[in-house]
Write a structure and sequence with these properties.
The chain folds into three domains: 132 residues, Fumarase C, Chain B, domain 1; 227 residues, Fumarase/aspartase (Central domain) (Fumarase C, Chain A, domain 2); 55 residues, Ribonucleotide Reductase Protein R1, domain 1 (Orthogonal Bundle), CATH 1.10.40. 59% of the residues lie in helices and 6% in strands. The radius of gyration is 30 Å and the shape is elongated. It starts with a strand and ends with a helix.
């Protein structure tokens, strides 16, 4: 064990670890969830510290020797199993001070070892004076939080685009399959199965745009604002210098500095905007999954208009039963995203004066939702959507039986007469076309022209 000291007192710490007393004290103070801070958040913090060291050297505030040691330490940590050095629970002290210091201590100890020093001595590189130079938790944490979320969100956009393409492919495949439309879960006028799937494709395209727009909010960074946004202890030129490094490290030239650093300390609106985009995905895709589960219900005693691919046995007692398990999983993920968005709303609204201290939970919520949503969309596409087949016979059967095909006759025989035909069709179990023929309401040429199901699905 080694003895380290902070402003509260002394603690014994294992002598072979890179974290220090503040990290260790926080791990003991917050044994809450057993959940580690998301890996992307840790990685982002390390890169942010490297960018800060380079920027501080460019301004003359930090020696090149120290900057190089910090940079090398970060590079070596990222190439190794760096997660093991971060021991602070995801649910921790407000603002993320514990997480910031965990990064500062780990980097400082790694750098000191590289320079020939011992763990916990900080003879060459100090966690606060060097690694945390020109920074405060209050500007580094929200910056890391936004950058981590932005980074993870790029895979979410890719998966949304792939899912949209999967629906587009199915829309084309099913374009000639006529089926009965349904409104209020009751028979409506005919529609093509391809049109239903094309609508799903289009809403996914709209959702993708929402996420891309939300990403622009995340690109606004308050780094250099220091404690309350006034930039205390931040050297001239630091903000522009660190922004340039972050653009390189995160391969994103659209990152920009906030037009008001105080605003960026107080408000975490970008996290709410992004969370709302994920909420929209969860709401809309819950509806789509419910549609697909309904359309595939049966197979003998339900709609049975589509056939989902079999992914696993559906029952421990009923042999041969297959359930829509992939879509059921997707729904559960969407519900979790909705819950996280509600928690995000409370956290974002809880800011007081110059700082919102609820940032650790914001980061965890955003990254968790992004992570599980991205994975769910991938599984949903690969194991379900891409393998859906149309039950053409069932679709055409329902299309031929729907009494609401009579809607096309409104301009010819009037709404009242059309309503009579609908009632008679349901009562007699005869199709509308059969009744039209019996009552000689239309010629065969008119029937073919007005009641062709395919024509009824094509707008004039």
């Amino acid at each position: 064990m080694r003895i380290e000291k902070d402003g509260i007192g002394e603690l014994s710490i294992p002598d072979d670890v890179f974290y220090g007393i503040q990290s260790y004290r926080a791990s003991k103070n917050f044994p809450i969830s057993g959940t580690q801070v998301h890996t992307q958040m840790i990685k982002t913090f390390l890169l942010l510290k490297k960018a800060a060291a380079i920027a501080n050297t460019e301004t003359g505030a930090l020696s090149s020797e120290k900057s190089e040691a910090i940079s090398t330490a970060v590079d070596e940590l990222l190439s190794d199993d760096f997660e093991k050095h971060f021991i602070v629970d995801a649910y921790q002290a407000g603002a993320g001070t514990s997480q910031n210091m965990n990064a500062n201590e780990v980097i400082a100890n790694k750098a000191n070892v590289l320079l020939g020093g011992g763990l916990g001595t900080y003879d060459h590189i100090n966690p606060n004076d060097d690694v945390n130079m020109s920074q405060s938790t209050n500007d580094t944490y929200p910056t890391a939080m936004r950058l981590a979320t932005l980074t993870l969100s790029k895979d979410l956009v890719i998966e949304l685009q792939k899912l949209g393409n999967a629906f587009k492919s199915k829309a084309q495949e099913f374009d000639q399959v006529i089926k009965s439309g349904r409104t209020h879960l009751q028979d409506a006028t005919p529609i093509r199965l391809g049109q239903e799937f094309q609508a799903y494709q289009k809403i996914i395209e709209d959702l993708t745009v929402l996420v891309i727009q939300a990403q622009d909010y995340l690109r606004e960074l308050g780094i250099g604002g220091s404690a309350v946004g006034t930039g205390i202890n931040v050297p001239h030129g630091y903000r522009d210098a660190i922004l340039d490094e972050l653009k390189t490290f995160f391969n994103d030239n659209d990152l920009f500095l906030s037009n008001n650093m105080c605003k960026s300390m107080q408000s975490q609106l970008p996290m709410m905007v992004y969370s709302n985009a994920m909420r929209s995905i969860a709401i809309e895709l819950t509806r789509v999954c419910n549609d697909l589960r309904l359309l595939s219900s049966g197979p003998a005693n339900g709609f049975g208009e589509i056939v989902l691919p079999s992914s696993q046995p559906g029952s421990s007692i009923m042999p041969g039963k297959i359930n829509p398990s992939i879509l059921e999983m997707s729904n559960q993920v969407f519900f979790k995203v909705l819950g996280n968005d509600t928690a995000m709303a409370f956290a974002v609204s809880a800011g007081q004066l110059e700082l919102n201290v609820m940032m650790p939970v914001m980061a965890q919520l955003a990254l968790e939702s992004t992570h599980i949503l991205t994975n769910a969309l991938k599984v949903m596409r690969e194991l379900c959507i891409s393998g859906i087949n149309a039950n053409v016979e069932v679709c055409e059967k329902y299309a031929s039986q729907t009494s609401q095909i009579v809607t096309a006759l409104n301009p010819v025989i009037g709404y009242a007469k059309a309503a009579e035909l609908t009632k008679e069709s349901l009562k007699s179990k005869k199709t509308v076309i059969e009744l039209v023929r019996e009552q000689k309401l239309l010629s065969e040429e008119q029937i073919k022209d007005l009641l062709d199901p395919m024509k009824l699905t094509v707008p004039h």
